[in-house]
Amino acid sequence: MMIPVLIISFVVLAVFSVPVALAVGISVLIAVAFFTPFPTLGLVQRMVTGIDSFVLMAIPFFMLTGRLMNEGGITDRIFEFARCLVGPIRGGLAHANVLASMIFAGMSGSAVADAGGLGMVEIKAMTDQGYRKEFAAAITVASSTIGPIIPPSIPMVIYGAMAEVSVGQLFLAGFVPGILMGLSLMGMVYFLSFREHMPKDKRYRFVEIWHSFRKAFFPLLTPVILIGGILSGIFTPTEAAAVSTIYAFALSFVVYKTVRIKDIPSILIDTFVTTAVVMFIISTTAGFSWLLIIGKIGKVLQELVFSLTRSPWLVLLCINVVLLFLGCLMEAGVLLILLTPIFVPMMTAMGVDLVHFGVIIVLNLMIGVATPPVGMCLFVVSEANNIKLERLMREIIPQVIPLILVLFVVTYFPDLVLWLPRWLMAPR
């Protein structure tokens, strides 16, 4: 009785537009108070222990890094460098949009930071050159999904903490899928460039490319410093988040002098608010996950699935379909926290590598942030660039197709995901 009440109350509250974190918390409170022998104080303890994790300390630091990069104008330098590299190709600015997102992914770990900061620069440049504004916005949303795949990655930090998987291995496992996502989007852009009559830039001289590279050199070092430090054992992934914040602050405040002292309080307040929201969601969903574990919902689901099939590939297909559907309806972070405790035991029982599965579930949910009706990046780009949400939703559908194809390639060719962490983090 407890599990049906928990799920039904959550669905009812969500239908009435109660904020997700509150809906989860209230439904858990109802279930604990009326359908379990546990005191409600136990729920509070679970909420506290749910965020009592050293790994989760990385989240506010990566958020602050992305904020500093955006406020410091570092995104402009990245986009100009990407434009010099691929601008002369037909549809050059659209290609630069994707490439810049791949580069920025190595700094912020957040799709929203990419869409909200880098996206404004990209969309203005594309519309000024004659691209349709809806297309420019759609490719910005699609490319922002690469942000949490190429390391660092906030969702992978959360998954690693919940599944007790090495965050360093998860970071490395995201490189190849992230590159495949970028290449697939660029292939789609090139295909559409003839139908859309997309313009291209003049061919840049070597001196211009070198100048743009020099301007972007220090930001480009960010992923090198982070991944190099993790692999060499200088710092942990959590400490790498703090290092990235210090480096972003040094670039914005000392080197480029684009962030002033008066800007710092607003940057910190925005980061604190966003972090508080994320941590509150993690805290309430920790109680939700606790009740699911008590109700043995994972075991029940596992037995149901195994009664139908024991093929890992068929089960992964079903999980992909379910996640793609749920990603259209619910916020990605909430789904990640709710579903990880359910799916991980099943994957372990079937012998699926949990690093591989981590990339699968994060990639699924990142596609969700770009798909209607509740894709977060759709709302961010629509609001920031004054584009009607309905028009953007129609435009994004074809752009999601290459990402789904990459998802299935990553699902059924695990060595593409695992060879890099196995090679670089194998026991010596």
Which helices and strands, and how do they pair?
Elements: H1 2-15, H2 20-35, H3 40-50, H4 58-71, H5 74-86, H6 92-108, H7 111-128, H8 133-144, H9 154-163, H10 167-173, H11 175-195, H12 206-232, H13 237-255, H14 264-294, H15 297-308, H16 312-327, H17 332-350, H18 354-368, H19 376-385, H20 389-412, H21 414-425
Helix pairs in contact: 1-2, 2-14, 3-14, 4-7, 4-13, 4-14, 5-6, 5-12, 6-7, 6-8, 6-11, 6-12, 7-8, 7-19, 8-19, 8-20, 9-17, 9-18, 10-21, 11-20, 12-13, 14-17, 15-17, 16-17, 16-18, 16-20, 17-18, 18-20
Descriptive report:
- This protein is mainly alpha-helical and 428 residues long.
- Helices cover 79% and strands 0% of the residues.
- It has one domain.
- The protein contains 21 helices and no strands.
- Helix 1 packs antiparallel against helix 2, helix 12 packs antiparallel against helix 13 and helix 16 runs antiparallel to helix 20.
Give a quick rundown of the structure.
With 428 residues, this protein is an all-alpha fold. The protein has helices at residues 2-15, 20-35, 40-50, 58-71, 74-86, 92-108, 111-128, 133-144, 154-163, 167-173, 175-195, 206-232, 237-255, 264-294, 297-308, 312-327, 332-350, 354-368, 376-385, 389-412, 414-425. It has one domain (38-425).
